[in-house]
Amino acid sequence: MGAGRAAASLEALTGEYFTMLVPEVSIYSAEEFEENSVYGQDNRSIMLHVGGDLNGFTSMVFSIESAKRLLSNVLDEEPEEEDLDLLVESALMELGNVVVGAIVGVFANALELNLEFSTPTLLEGSIGDLVSSGAIGKNPQIIVAKIKFIDSVGTTKGYFVTVFDLASMGVVIPSLDTFLKKQGLI
Amino acid sequence: MTPDFLDFLPMGAFIIDRDYTVRKWNRVIEEWSRVPRGEIEGKPLGEKFKRFDEPRYRHAIENCLDNNTAPVLFSPALHKDLLPTFKPDGSKRIQVISISPIARLTGSVQGFVTIQDITDLTQANKKIREAQIKIEREIEQRIAAEKMLSDSKKQEALSKLASGFAHVVNNKLQAISSAAEIAAAKLNFPEKVQNQIERILAISKKTGELSNLLWEFAQENSESSERIPIFNCIAKIAEEFEASNRIGVFLETASPEKTSALHVTFSQKALFLIFKEVLSNAFEAFAGTASPMIRIVIHEAAHSEGSQNGDGEFAVVSVHDNGEGMSEETVAHAFDPFFTQRENRNGIGLTIAREKALQFGGDLILQSIEGQGTEVRILLPVNRNGPSPPELSVSNVAIQKPARRHVLEGFVSSLPGEPTLDGR
Questions:
Q1: Is residue B125 in some structural domain?
Q2: Chain A interface disruption, residue of B72, B99, B136, most A CBs within 10 A
Q3: Quick check: A122 and A45 in contact, CB under 8 A?
Q4: Which CATH superfamily is domain A3-182 in?
Q5: Domain count, chain B
Q6: What span, in angstroms and rounded, lies between the C-alpha atoms of B48 and B25?
Q7: Residue A115: its chain B contacts at CB < 8 A?
Q8: Where are the domains of chain A?
Q9: Which residue range forms the structural domain that includes residue B402?
Q10: Could you read off the pLDDT of B115-156 as tens digits, one per residue?
């Protein structure tokens, strides 16, 4: 849901043709998420806090290598340094924000949720640290979607990670039921 | 948030309507953009900043405002000069622009635009990265230097150990040899026992040679390089070797003028040690050879030809013998310590010769054909920094190809303080 919109937004922004695939979506408790490979990796995460009907954050997570590969196409040159400098990071933040914004926008519209978003921030390091910090309540629910970006050069992998508190899931599930019924899917 | 609060923000900020009309232009953006609020408030943003009217920006911003989605973000790497602002010195600011929908706050479709200046942060980040790279390089250099120092200390310790060991072994060997000689001279032993005593003397002699070699090797580790005229030096070595071994040593060169001017950077002692070992190895390969002959060919300067010591310029001196040659397996292990196919060799001479060559920036390369002979190419780093030698006329030098070494006697000069092949 929202992958097509995200790809179109990226294309409009960069002038590059993008396809996005979401081959796998999983829901975890905080404990289960610790077992996920993305939990402790040194990554770059573009994160937006979400308020309104839901409470939590949503983020696009890239390994440094994936981030470099994605940016090499957009910036017309691969970042040379081992790490990413501030200018390159800001470009990554923009791309991640486009993807997160598009996916969450479609999600909110489909489920008829009223959401408010912070401006994006870039998180360096492990997203697991943020989840386990208790910032999103004691029993956060984590949705992890593997995402493949396919452009003219090749494929880049990333993760779309959404973390909501337990109360938010109480809002999402009935809204999802309503949506699926409207679509005639259940 | 009421619009007046925007003037208290420490960043550029303004509000736009759905049709891009600017509603509030805060003090910071007024100063940064040098556009007074009176000139832009109430007017479309595109009048002053035309790029906002480009379809890709309109599409992204309108979608954000209409659908109340997540903010849109424009990064400096991808959007230069979208809304240029300036520092007091006139340089452009590096900035991130974000636009958030604020319909829920104001009751109408509007966008809150912020301009975050990251110029100082970017420059500080760049300086930190440069410092980080510099520190990493310095650490690498320090580790390398410490390793070299550690290796050098180990080598020094090993040299001392080897030197002490050789000294002790020599004393003991001398005692054994003396006792054996006295016994053989004074006592009338049966022939079998006499033979055993001779064996003891022969083994003591070989072990003594090995011990001397080890001592020489250990002694010369601290020796420094000097500028050596290679032709004179080789001629001297050939002369001594020919005299002490009664074998024809032919010295050849294709270009006497060039070769006579050729200098190398090397240790003179190490050079004599290398040639002593290479020539001895050639000499001992003549078992059963009808007309034994050693040829030394001095080539003009050439490049590395597979040297371990890089692709520098080398003087190449080839020592050829027409002895028994070596099998492929022997060639492959010729420089391995204690590897020898001959009973009378200790298997360490060529190893030490090559180590010496490498130590002073040269190399040894060995080729051989079984039954035909062996060629050892001695590579020595060329030195072109010194003063030019006196002109030598070909007739004066009297070198022909091939020419026997003794023809060169008029040319060979003695080298000050030069060592001799027997180590004196």
A1: no
A2: B72
A3: yes
A4: CheC-like (3.40.1550.10)
A5: 3
A6: 13
A7: 68
A8: 3-182
A9: 224-408
A10: 999 999 888 888 888 898 899 999 998 898 888 788 777 777
